[in-house]
Amino acid sequence: MNNVELVVMSSISLAVMGASAAPGGVVVSRRAASPPPSSAWPGIPADTPCPWANLRSSPPVTAEPDLRAVHEQLLGPDTFPVEEMLPVDELVTLAQSGAATVLALRNGETYLGVAVLEECGGTTLLAYLAVAAAARSGGYGSALLAAVRAEAARRGRRFVLAEIERPGTQPGRPGHGDPARRAAFYGRHGAKALAIRHWQPAIPPYGPVALALIAIPTTAAGLPDLTAQQLREFETAYHGEPAAPELAATLADLATGTTVACRTLADLPAGDCGRVYVDYDVKATTVSAVVAFDAMGVLYSAGDDVAELLIPYVRELGCTLSDYEIRDLYHRASRGELTADALWAAYGVPGDDATYCTRFTLVPGIAGLVADLAQSGVRLACLSNDVSEWSARLRRQFGLDKDIQTWVISGDIGVRKPDGRAYAALVEAVGVPPEHIIFFDDREDNVAAARVAGLDARRFVTAAAARVALRAVGLLA
Fold first, then answer.
1. SS3 of 227, please?
2. Residue pair 159/215 in contact by the 8 Å Cβ criterion
3. Where does the chain hold its CATH 3.40.630 domain(s)?
C-alpha cells in the first residue's frame, strides 16, 4: 500500500448552502515523511485506516488521459452493470467543465478506487464509488468515502446523498458487488435511508430495480435534520421538471412537513423507503416496450462480418484489393451507395449473395430468445449496419422475419451506427419514446451512442444473459 495517491481530478467552484466553495483541487498522497498539515482534507478522522496516513495536498490533476484511464480501469463493465455505466466522453466533459469532481486512488499507473461527485440543487451527490475487485476489503472504500465526506465538508455540506440498490430486490452480481454488503458498508459510516419514494429515470423500464436514496454524514456529529425543501430542490434539479408521475409522487412526499424521516439501512429490506415503481404495476411500464437487436454479433455469430466472412470469401474468389479497400467499399454499400451486385463488381469477383450468406450462423440461443419474446407479445426490431440485399436474405434464411417485424438497416436509411440518425430512424420506425426501446448491441461505442439518443441500451454478451435481463424487467416469464 505504499505510494498510494488520491487524485482530485477536477473541482467545482460554486455557491454552496451558506458558504462558497474554494476553487481548485488537491492531490493527496501517502508519504513516509511528516504528518499532514491540518489544512489537508479537514474532517478525515485521525484513526482512518491506511492508506490515509500522512496525507498532504498538491496541485489538481485534470488531464484527459488520466480521466480515461480511471474510466477504463474502474468505471467499465467489470465494475458496473452496462446499464449504469457513465460513458467515458461524458465523464471527461463533466470533470473538465467543473460539473463533477473525480477522486481517484492510484498506485503508480494502477487506479484502485474512484468516487465521482456531482452538484444537484445545492446538494452534493455521490454519483459513483468503486474499488477495484483486487483491492476490496483493504480499507480503500472507507478511505475514499472519508475523502468524499471531507470534500463535501469543505464545501459547507453536512451530508452527501447517494443511491444504492435495496438489499433483497436483486442478488449480487459477479464483479458488481452485493447490495446487502454495500448497504452495510454505508451504514457503518452513519448513512441512513430517506423515507421517500425516490425515482431514478435512467433505469426505465427496469421496474424491478429498486433504489434507495441515502444520506451520508460528513462529520462525526452525524446527520443533521434533512429538510423537505432541501430534498425538493435536489430531486427537481436531479430529474428536471416533474413531468413523470413517479417524480410527482416523490415531490408529494416532500410537500408536507419540514423534515424528512430517515431509517437505518438495516431496515431497508422490510422498510417502505426508497421504493421505485411501487405504486403501480411494474408490467404496465414495460408492455409498450420494444426490444431491438443489433444483427452482427447479436443475431448472427460474426461480430465483425467483414473481417470474419467477407474478406476471406472475396479472397477465395481472387480479389486483390487491400483489406482497407474491401472494408471501405463495404461501408459504402452498407450506406446504400452501392448495390450488392455493384459491390461484387467493385471487388472484381463473381460474388453471389446466396452463397456468401450461407457463411453466416446464428448466435447460440438467440433464435429461442426471439421466439419466446414474440410469443410473449413483445414487439421486436433490428437496427443493423448491413448491405440491404444481404440483410433481407439473412432474415429470410433464418426465419427471423416472422418474429422481428421492424428492420432498420443502414443500407436503407443511408447512415451507420453509431451515427445518431440511425437511432432516430429506429425510434421513428417503432413509434415509441426512445426510453421504451431496450436495445442490445455487442459494441460499446454503439451502446454509448444509443444511450445518448435516449434508448435503454445494453451491451450484448450472450443470449442467456440477455434473457436474464429481459426476465428482470418483466418481458419474459
1. strand
2. yes
3. 1-157
CA 51 to chain centre: 29
**How far is 50 from 166, CA to CA, in rounded Å?**
29
Nearest by Cα to 145 from 116, 176, 111: 116
pLDDT of residue 282: 26
The overall pTM is greater than 0.90? no
Instruction: Say how many CA atoms lie within 13 Å of 25 toward its Cβ.
Output: 23
292 vs 383: CA distance, rounded Å: 7
H or E segment and range at residue 373: helix 366-375
Q: Are 144 and 46 in contact (CB under 8 A)?
A: no
Measured CA to CA, the distance from residue 42 to residue 33 in angstroms comes to 19
Distance CA 425, CA 457 (A): 15
Where does CATH 3.40.50.1000 sit in the chain? Answer: 286-477
Query: In the numeric block, which cell numbers belong to residue 122?
Result: 445545492
What would the pLDDT profile of 413-442 be if each residue is shown by its tens digit? Answer: 999 999 999 999 999 999 888 888 999 999
Q: How many CB atoms lie within 10 A of CB 268?
A: 26
The identity of residue 240, as a single letter, is G
Q: Which residues are CB-neighbours of 165 under 8 A, at least 6 positions away?
A: 179, 182, 209, 210, 211, 212
Third-level CATH fold of 1-157: Aminopeptidase (3.40.630)
In the CATH scheme, what architecture does the domain 286-477 have? 3-Layer(aba) Sandwich (3.40)
Candidates 461, 288, 437; CA nearest to 369 is 461
Structure-block grid coordinates of residue 427: 425510434
Whole-angstrom Cα Rg for the chain: 25
- Contacts (Cβ under 8 Å, ≥6 apart) of 431: none
The bridge status of strand 437-441 relative to strand 456-459 is parallel
